[in-house]
Amino acid sequence: MARAKRLHHVTVMVTDLEAADAFYGGLIGLAKIQRPDLPSQGIWYEIDGTQVHIILADRSDPPSPRHIAFEVDDLEVTLCTVEKMGLPIWSDIQVEGFVRKHCRDPFGNGIELLQRVESRQERGTPSPSYVNAKGEWRFGEDEFR
To answer: Sign of torsion, CA 51 49 110 28?
Structure first.
């Protein structure tokens, strides 16, 4: 049986490349890489051998449980920047070895931010967050399908 060797890339749809670059290149700190001449507009980044392809779209997808998880070196600083961008932050059920928070990029794409426990600084009061059996993402009083 053939098996996958590694994750090569993920694709994120956005409606504004400048705002996407401020979020993914600036806030998250992804390194830009050369993008081939393609019919669509976009930006490509790379982190630890995995690429993140940003593609310009006419409209954003509705919020959903889909997300990209980034391990960051300083969760507190990252969350402060997310707050300055006016993006909501919520807590989730903690996973052993990490503290994690969630937000959305400026286009509604789900982002999980993690930091290893040995260097973490917990921020705020955790609120329950989970994906229920219908695939709906609940946190606080809000619900996304």
So the answer is: negative
Asked if residues 89 and 78 have their Cβ atoms less than 8 Å apart, the reply is: no
The CATH number of the structural domain formed by 9-140 is 3.10.180.10
102: helix, strand or coil: strand
- H-only helix segments in 27-124: 75-84
Helix, strand or coil for residue 137?
Answer: strand
Q: Tell me, what's the pLDDT at 92?
A: 82
Q: How many CA atoms lie within 13 A of 104 on its CB side?
A: 19
- Report d(CA 12, CA 53) in Å as an integer: 6
pTM score: 0.79
What DSSP element (H or E) covers 53?
strand 50-56
% residues pLDDT > 90 (the chain): 70
CB-side exposure of 128: number of CA atoms within 13 Å?
6
pLDDT per position as a tens digit, 104-121:
999 999 999 999 987 444
pLDDT of residue 123: 47
CA distance 14 to 99: 27
